[in-house]
Automatic annotation (TrEMBL):
Cofactor(s) demanded: Zn(2+)
GO molecular function: alcohol dehydrogenase (NADP+) activity; zinc ion binding
Domain Enoyl reductase (ER): from-to ranges: 11-341
Top-level taxonomy: Bacteria, Bacillati, Bacillota, Bacilli, Bacillales
Organism: Planomicrobium soli
Keywords: Metal-binding, Oxidoreductase, Zinc
Name of the protein in question: Putative zinc-type alcohol dehydrogenase-like protein
Keyword Disulfide bond: no
Amino acid sequence: MLTVKARAVDGPDKAFREAEIIRRDLDAQDVLIEIKFAGICHSDIHTAHGEWGPVNYPLVPGHEIAGIVTEVGAEVTKYKVGDRVGVGCMVDSCGECVNCQKGEEQYCLNGNVPTYAGVDKYGEPTQGGYSTHIVVTEDFVVQIPDGIELDAAAPLLCAGITTYSPLNHWGAGPGKKVAVVGMGGLGHVAVKIAAAMGADVTVLSQSLSKKEDGLEFGAKDYYATSDPETFEKLAGNFDLIINTVSAKIDIDAYFSLLSLDGTLVNVGAPPEPLEVNVFSLIGHRRSFAGSMIGGIRETQEMLNFCAEHSIVPKIEVISADQIDEAYERVLASDVKYRFVIDTSTI
């Protein structure tokens, strides 16, 4: 077993501290990855603060992992030492259920194994990417294309696939009007991907403070949701709305923006329930859907797509000593647009 450095939190109101954790010995199909960068996702904050249910502390978050393979198991065929790789939100699944067989491991009927705050097949708690190394079975590792730098690649392992998957599934492309709600870590990536797919993209944000960025990222229009006239002007306008906001919003107001047969997909995950008036849906055969991440195959597809279209998130690289400050800034919407930890500082 390998003892590695990490940053852990001991409770919902505790600060991050230096820690050491154990990574397992390599099984035949495992790879050891030296983590170079780890993105900070809003999910990390929800989990660290205990907002999504009980947490087995101490917790090492982080499921946006980019690094280098330093050792491989005896039967590994997909990767070799020196490869640039990534690990996202899950590190295992049953591999046998109908969803896993379809390449949709994120919806494993027996439950996938999350990268942190989960329990692996050995009965041990999983710990994430705020650390220097991780051991993962090769089937849950993806190749990072040479055209994407490792620091910028890290957020794609969650923010990238979380937005690519619904845009891909619901057919964002030429002739489709797509709205992105929120211009944060998820939203700004969604804008870039949807625009690269050929969709007509509009940003719906609380204010116009990030309008210049939104248009630069590929949006054709940008509206403030704090202005009631926005909802009147855009009523019935969109084929697809991607809601990236992890807070409670007036979801019925956004349903009014959907066209006939339009769909609103929630990828943000607020801790409190959203209230839905069914009449907001049935009047124009609208749909309300949810989407998590993508499977491993689709995650690799997303990375290749981003490399082909020169899509990278806008990041701010921080040291491990700045994690608590970064959390506070994310909650205050004071980041453009994703924090990434330089794990050499752990």
